[in-house]
Specification:
- The structure is a single chain.
- The protein is an alpha+beta fold.
- The protein has two helices and five strands.
- Strands 1-2-3-5-4 form a five-stranded mixed sheet, covered by helices on one side.
- Helix 1 packs across helix 2.
- The radius of gyration is 16 Å and the shape is elongated.
- The chain starts with a helix and ends with a strand.
Length: 142
């Protein structure tokens, strides 16, 4: 399945930002729904939210436009807009490198980035990136 291969390559590429590799991320998740304990932050969450498919009659292939959201959750002293902007740029640099190596599809478009700060029990920052990955498969493949 090409879709899972793209997600796996994206997650593996982002793991270069792991604390063990000199980066800033403590944990990585695919499709986590509940926020983790503040002690786990910073965390990165990758979700492949939708796949728009156009099948071609002549070639028997399908063009996929896969939407992927990447969230960066940070807490307390890291929950500043400056920190989130810097770290979102680091994430984008990884995505750029993966695209250049054609490890996440044929073409990647950068769709949006957002920042939110909230305070309930702790100050939490959320940086979000949305990308769209274009790739081709045989007609009946994901």
């Amino acid at each position: 399945m090409k879709r899972q291969e793209i997600i796996n390559n994206l997650k593996n590429g982002l793991k270069t930002l792991d604390i063990d590799n000199g980066g800033f991320v403590k944990k990585f998740f695919e499709w986590v729904i509940n926020p983790q304990e503040i002690a786990s932050y910073p965390v990165v969450v990758v979700r492949d939210t939708s796949d728009n498919v156009e099948s071609e009659e002549v070639s028997g292939s399908s063009k996929h436009s896969l939407k992927i959201e990447i969230d960066l959750l940070v807490g307390n002293e890291e929950a500043t807009t400056l920190y989130l902007r810097e770290k979102l740029q680091d994430i984008l640099n990884v995505i750029k490198d993966l695209e250049e190596q054609t490890l996440i599809g044929d073409y990647v478009s950068f769709k949006s980035n957002d920042i939110e700060l909230s305070y309930e029990e702790y100050l939490v920052g959320l940086g979000k990136i949305e990308i769209e990955v274009t790739y081709w498969t045989s007609k009946w493949e994901i």
